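Hi all, posting the design record for the shared folder.

TITLE: backbone redesign
STEP: 1 of 1
STRUCTURE INPUT:
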């Protein structure tokens, strides 16, 4: 690990306005019982332990997005997500901390219509943090009509709004995970370890693209393995490449080549927000070995991808063995578990 390029990236990041939401590095923790079970060393980057609004990865992005909004004199942030969006919940909490209004355009993306899903979890917290919620049916026409209503409302209020895409996944937001990569690299130096792979959920791609950009400058031999949870592997990889190029351009560095973008499409199952048997098993495994709670949409499927790779065993494919170190980036989202209830749990947990 060479701190030189990392220091240069850190200096470049310092040129962007930033509103502090984390305050200090999130822990990088050993997971000894999980490691023993899987036969590799697993380290968990605990971005679920960030401090605002029950934590999560979007806070890193929102540091830069809110910094930009406040520098531009905005008094309102508008963003998008599914009904149980972690990004929406963290945006609402971050706006409360910053003292600006938050408007959330939420869509019916996941085929769940039970009362628990529509009243609990992140949606309950959105209301608690004071966000104004606008519901859309998720069709192109329906979304356009909802956006038009929001724009009319903001104009009537005289608001100056910063619009943010789903997941905060624009180049400026992805800088939050370039910063995380530098933080992670320092923690690994402190532990005298250079991980073989970093596992992360890959959906709107800001987290994946930012990590890839940052780690190329800080831990060049460590690969990033995204686990697709929104679209198939090919479409997800295309999004990572496109956004990664934009992030690199913003920072004035060389982008990662397309061959450096690794996406596991085998955990998507029936689609976004729909648990699989493997994700349920991984949820129980992390809970019963390390007392760590995963969410049903992102981290459970990412953990299932890590578990599957470990079970392949060592061999010519380069699959992990006893000397392998893997980092699992815990992107948060545990409030979503309460919107899914027992459907997110495997049979062993449910007692069936």
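Okay, here is what came back for every position:
SEQUENCE:
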């Amino acid at each position: 690990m060479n701190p030189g390029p990392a220091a240069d990236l850190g200096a470049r990041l310092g040129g962007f306005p930033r509103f502090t939401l984390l305050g200090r590095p999130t822990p990088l923790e050993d997971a000894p019982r999980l490691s023993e079970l899987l036969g590799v060393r697993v380290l968990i980057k605990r971005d679920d332990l960030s401090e605002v609004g029950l934590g999560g990865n979007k806070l890193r992005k929102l540091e830069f997005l809110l910094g930009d909004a406040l520098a531009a004199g905005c008094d309102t942030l508008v963003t998008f997500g599914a009904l149980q969006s972690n990004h929406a919940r963290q945006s609402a909490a971050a706006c409360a901390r910053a003292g600006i209004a938050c408007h959330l355009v939420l869509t019916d993306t996941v085929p769940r219509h039970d009362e628990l899903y529509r009243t609990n979890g992140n949606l309950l917290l959105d209301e608690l943090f004071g966000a104004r919620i606008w519901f859309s049916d998720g069709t192109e026409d329906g979304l356009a009509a909802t956006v038009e209503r929001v724009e009319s409302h903001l104009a009537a209020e005289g608001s100056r709004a910063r619009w943010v895409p789903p997941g905060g996944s624009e180049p400026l937001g992805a800088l939050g995970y370039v910063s995380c990569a530098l933080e992670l690299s320092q923690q690994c130096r402190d532990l005298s370890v250079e991980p073989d792979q970093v596992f992360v959920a890959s959906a709107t791609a800001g987290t994946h693209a930012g990590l890839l950009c940052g780690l190329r400058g800080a831990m060049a031999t460590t690969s990033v393995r995204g686990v697709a949870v929104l679209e198939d592997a090919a479409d997800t990889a295309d999004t990572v490449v496109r956004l990664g190029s934009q992030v690199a351009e913003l920072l004035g560095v060389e982008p990662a080549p397309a061959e450096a973008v690794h996406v596991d499409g085998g955990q998507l199952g029936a689609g976004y927000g729909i648990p699989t048997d493997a994700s349920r098993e991984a949820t129980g495994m992390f809970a019963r070995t390390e007392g760590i709670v995963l969410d049903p949409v992102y981290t459970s499927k990412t953990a299932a991808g890590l578990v599957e790779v470990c079970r392949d065993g060592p061999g010519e494919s380069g699959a992990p063995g006893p000397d392998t170190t893997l980092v699992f980036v815990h992107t948060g989202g545990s409030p979503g578990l309460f919107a899914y209830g027992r459907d997110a749990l495997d049979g062993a947990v449910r007692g069936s």
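COMMENT: Strands lie at 28-30, 41-46, 76-82, 101-107, 132-136, 161-163, 197-202, 223-228, 262-264, 325-330.
Let me know if anyone wants the other runs.
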